[in-house]
Amino acid sequence: MEELHIQNTLSGEKERFVPIVEGHVGLYVCGPTVYSDVHLGNVRTFMSFDVIFRYLKFLGYKVRYVRNITDVGHLVGDVDEGEDKIGKKARLENLEPMEVVQRYTNGFHDVMRLFNIQNPSIEPTATAHIIEQIEMTATLINKGLAYEKNGSVYFDVLTYAEHEPYGELSGRKLEDLIHNTRELDGQEDKKNSLDFALWKRAEPEHIMKWNSPWGMGFPGWHLECSVMSRKYLGDTFDIHGGGMDLKFPHHECEIAQHKGAIGMKPVNYWLHTNMLTVNGRKMSKSEGNGFTPEELLTGDHKLLDKGYSAMAVRFFMLMGHYSSTLDFSNTALQAAEKAHQRMMTGWKDLLDIKASDSNEVDVDALRKRCQEAMNDDFNTPVLIGVLFDAVKAVNLVKAGQQTIDEYSKKGLTQLMYDYLFTVMGLREEGSAGTDASLEEGLIQMLIAMRKEARVNKDFALSDGIRDRLAELHVQLKDGPEGTSWSKG
Amino acid sequence: MEELHIQNTLSGEKERFVPIVEGHVGLYVCGPTVYSDVHLGNVRTFMSFDVIFRYLKFLGYKVRYVRNITDVGHLVGDVDEGEDKIGKKARLENLEPMEVVQRYTNGFHDVMRLFNIQNPSIEPTATAHIIEQIEMTATLINKGLAYEKNGSVYFDVLTYAEHEPYGELSGRKLEDLIHNTRELDGQEDKKNSLDFALWKRAEPEHIMKWNSPWGMGFPGWHLECSVMSRKYLGDTFDIHGGGMDLKFPHHECEIAQHKGAIGMKPVNYWLHTNMLTVNGRKMSKSEGNGFTPEELLTGDHKLLDKGYSAMAVRFFMLMGHYSSTLDFSNTALQAAEKAHQRMMTGWKDLLDIKASDSNEVDVDALRKRCQEAMNDDFNTPVLIGVLFDAVKAVNLVKAGQQTIDEYSKKGLTQLMYDYLFTVMGLREEGSAGTDASLEEGLIQMLIAMRKEARVNKDFALSDGIRDRLAELHVQLKDGPEGTSWSKG
Questions:
Q1: Which residue in chain B has the smallest CA separation from A107?
Q2: Count of domains in chain A?
Q3: To the nearest whole angstrom, how far is the Cα of B184 from the nearest Cα of chain A?
Q4: Distance separating alpha carbons of residues A190 and B164, to the nearest angstrom
Q5: Is there a domain that residue B464 lies in?
Q6: Is residue A206 part of a domain?
Q7: ipTM score for this prediction
Q8: In the predicted model, is pLDDT for residue A76 greater than 70?
């Protein structure tokens, strides 16, 4: 596709992307709730939007990318009763809630950095926008779309639905929702079980709370994204993203709050990333098949044969389209690891191949195909396929079966740099500081020399190699499958 | 000193440290204003408090360390008129203020990481505490200690001073302050030029503003630290730190606001870090002698002969006491770099020295001196002197002029580890990821083997080593001073 098209969850159609302000894109993505370690599904979502952020910038857009931090207001079980998640964890650990928030925010940032996920332009927190949340709540009460009961304020879904299509994003029908919503304990303040909290009364033991026109309380979870996206991106903005599990109720509620309060639709394009599975089953902590990002890197989980580098994982994730489920299996991960190595070897080979006077590599065609792949709803798997065609061309040149001239070599180098590093956000591993592969290469060289010395019965040499390595704290171990080494 | 003593700026005395809650310490340090890159003075201040944070934890205290981010409210020139610094920069760059804030917050965190400065327990932002600032302002009005004029609210210093000693921290006298305060434009709303703003009316063009009982506005700079320190550390807490330039008016105003609103003193121990000078003159951008942390690392500044590693800079800064001015000169930096290398070599040698049956190294005495140094107002220069005595002992053992037994070697290793890494926060450079020294060691080993092979006229081996290294892209070069190598 010559122009960027996006699969819009709201319309269910693939639509040409037309920004509201020419040359600018406003992008909002629901960020993490920082009451526990970031999970792998988050990493996939934020990596997907990282590539979208990178590609929009690559196209020349000035992108304002807002990804929030939910540091209050997300209720246990996604119902409006129960304790605030962060407050609960804080009391369990006997910590100030903001100390918990700080710890997990730092941890989240560490993981983002590990996977080379860029910082958003603005990373606002829910607690920094209590005033705006109180204001939007008051507006909704004034418009007759919300009501106060016992110090809490609820959004009146049925009144809203008289004028606006509640369920338009998730495709849910109001009648079905009414029938399927259970009456839960502590929901008796609501006119209708469908209604959701904008503001919750805080019990005296609740730690995170603020004064409001309705007494001490804290905002409902859905509200923060409405006020923060509007504050930084405007009354209607271009793209709103998040994990698929947020479509309902979170994003549906965002639309209702925003339309109710502002009278305009908040977002032109909604994008949702799909879920992770493990060996075909939904990844979840309770099933014991939900490994953490760290476990994936170390291999320290019963379902993992080995660990993978952060860039191999990134490559693996981008081998699937963001809107497809992504299945983690040892086979798929190891295949992706090999593919990633092949790609990076191709990149290194490209820098080394000799240019000649004639040229048989059509770089323009490759570039066109790369752009078409990404313009087709950010299709990274297709993009990777095109880049492997580029690697194939490199290999043919290397084998002397095809020619490339200096101009095309430069063009191909720029192309691969653009898409591997700038757009896909890969990073050459071990390129910072020392070179792990050199260390490995040197030791393998010495192991081979020692083997040859033993074959030649030059035991002075073979023992000398072993002893000198030991001085460098490198231990050799001879086994049935050859010699291995370890540092110690 | 057997127990921790702290030089308290408030009393001017060195006092024994007694925490309010046994085993716990509340520590607040004024953080950066994120409207520009962090400067070297900040780095020194935050590094000083990093060592204090580390040492308190080392002593077994559970420390809640709060270091704020000023993302609004700091007025140009530290007077209460003029544009909010962040709003101004944002308009110059045509950015949303929070986008500026995000960029410089990220940059600040990068620099902190570079210098191995630990994250505080909580890093609250001023904009996340607008409600609390409005509440404290209202309290001060109710108590007759503040007044509203044209949508702004000012603290009434003279009324406060009728009951409390305004100037107690900085040692300034009220009469002198009254005579020396110039009448500035736009200050006509104040009853007295000494009064300072708690809340400022926002002009329509002002971007960062919030609704308040006094109209749209934004908080005065001094207020945020009062509300955030109180919120997270309590009505009176243990230690408040900051750069010496903050003593007046910032910290003086914090005390006045807090005492006025709460009726208690906010802080038991005030600590202030001293200024940086360059070749004896105050470091400042306008003088052109204010290099950035990055310039210090790269050496890319007209006053610098060369660049220094982050850990050499850390060592240099800790060679001075936090309460002394620290003078940057090429001579001093290079001396510190050498001292740092000598210290780290001593540490590595310690791991390698051979223990014997007898012992002449008194580790207990060394540990006692380390603790005494740090207990004496965190005296890192004295600590470093003791650690050099430890290195001296290592060198004597290495030279065979002194003995150490296994028990004392272990004790000395633990001691140096504790103080070099845990307390002083040094980091072994090049130790992350692959080991540069192993790579170097392997190649030197191969160079030595090749030399021996040539002496033995085993040219198959010597050429083999050269060729195999070339395959690993390591080039050997024989010269008059021996063989050197390079990657290529």
A1: B119
A2: 3
A3: 33
A4: 51
A5: yes
A6: yes
A7: 0.82
A8: no
Say if residue A81's pLDDT is above 50.
no
pLDDT (average), residues A318-322: 98
- Measured CA to CA, the distance from residue A239 to residue A30 in angstroms comes to 12
Q: Which of residues B273, B306, B337 is at a domain's end?
A: B273
Residue B432 sits at the chain A interface (C-beta within 8 Å): yes
Interchain CB contacts (distance < 8 Å): A and B: 114
The per-residue pLDDT for range B326-344, each reduced to its tens digit, is 999 999 999 999 999 999 9
Segment holding A273, helix H or strand E: strand A267-273
Indicate which of B472, B475, B476, B487 best probes the interface with A, i.e. most A CBs within 10 Å of its own CB: B472
Q: Which range has the worst mean pLDDT, A385-399, B215-229, B473-487?
A: B473-487
d(CA A411, CA A350) in angstroms, rounded, equals 11
Residue B90 in contact with partner chain A when CB distance is under 8 A: no
Cα gap A235→A261, rounded to integer Å: 10
A135: containing domain? 21-273
CATH code of the domain containing B350: 1.20.120.640
Tens-digit pLDDT profile for residues B399-410:
999 999 999 999
Q: For residues B286 and A348, what is the distance between their CA atoms, to the nearest angstrom?
A: 47
Q: pLDDT band at residue B91, thresholds of 50, 70 and 90?
A: very low
**Count of residues for chain A?**
488
Name residues whose C-beta falls within 8 Å of residue B6's C-beta, 6 or more positions apart in sequence: B14, B15, B17, B239, B269, B271, B377, B378
A469 contact B CB<8A = yes
Comparing CA positions, the residue from A96, A92, A101 lying closest to residue A35 is A101
* Residues B230, B154 share a domain: yes
| Separation in Å, CA B88 to CA A232, A369, B76, B91, B222 | 17, 44, 9, 5, 19
Please tell me whether residues B220 and B284 are part of one structural domain: no
Range with the poorest average pLDDT among A259-273, A404-418, B165-179, B369-383: B165-179
User: Does A445 contact chain B (CB < 8 Å)?
Assistant: yes
Smallest Cα distance from A354 to chain B, Å: 16
B267-273 and B62-67 as β-strands: parallel, antiparallel, unpaired? unpaired
CB under 8 A, 24+ apart: contacts of B383-389: B383/B419, B383/B423, B383/B424, B384/B315, B384/B318, B384/B319, B384/B339, B384/B343, B384/B424, B387/B343, B387/B416, B387/B419, B387/B420, B388/B339, B388/B342, B388/B343, B388/B346
Q: Which residue of B has its CA nearest to A64?
A: B99
Write down the mean pLDDT value for chain B.
90
Q: Which residue has the tokens 């526990």?
A: A36
